[in-house]
Amino acid sequence: MFETNNRLVVLYGSQTFTAQEIAERVWRTTKVLGFRGPVQAMDDYPIAQLIKEEFAIFVCATAGQGDEPDNMKRFWKFLLKRSLPSNSLLKLKFGVLALGDSSFMKFNYVGKKMHKRLIQLGATPLLNVG
Ligand SMILES: Cc1cc2nc3c(=O)[nH]c(=O)nc-3n(C[C@H](O)[C@H](O)[C@H](O)COP(=O)(O)O)c2cc1C
């Protein structure tokens, strides 16, 4: 059914565990579907490996006033580096699930920005931001 080695990583940025729980739920579903790969906080994932990945799901909460959660700060800083070439993530196909609250001015800011930034770096979205 899958042409690749079935690897799919599920990465989350979560301040108060909601995104983490959802990421773990998504990950369990990916297992049932036959994918393998880790579920991790973005800052626990070795980011240099991202250029090799073919499939990834990002579950991103927005904290503070449009801020990234603490456990994705390093990952985020790296991803936003201007020096990264626009073809860095050509292999990657991804989906972003954004968690937020529409009563905040910067509703789902991190998830939306993640989606845009991954595209800027050459990755292909498999679906719109969820
Ligand atoms: C202190 C605080 C600040 C928040 N700031 C935002 C925000 O700027 N934009 C937004 O869309 N949601 C915001 N939210 C809502 C969270 O993103 C939402 O509750 C999310 O489900 C939390 O996920 P987490 O438990 O994984 O951190 C905020 C929530 C809290 C408690």
Automatic annotation (TrEMBL):
GO terms for cellular component: cytosol. GO terms for molecular function: flavin adenine dinucleotide binding; FMN binding; oxidoreductase activity. Transmembrane segments: none annotated. It holds the Pfam family Flavodoxin_1. PROSITE patterns: FLAVODOXIN_LIKE. Gene3D superfamilies: 3.40.50.360. InterPro entries: Flavdoxin-like, Flavodoxin/NO_synth, Flavoprotein-like_sf. SUPFAM superfamilies: Flavoproteins (SSF52218). The keyword Flavoprotein applies. It comes from the Eukaryota. Keywords: Flavoprotein. Residues 8-130 form the Flavodoxin-like domain. PANTHER family: NADPH-DEPENDENT DIFLAVIN OXIDOREDUCTASE 1, NITRIC OXIDE SYNTHASE-RELATED. This is NADPH-dependent diflavin oxidoreductase 1. It comes from Eumeta variegata (Bagworm moth). The gene is NDOR1.
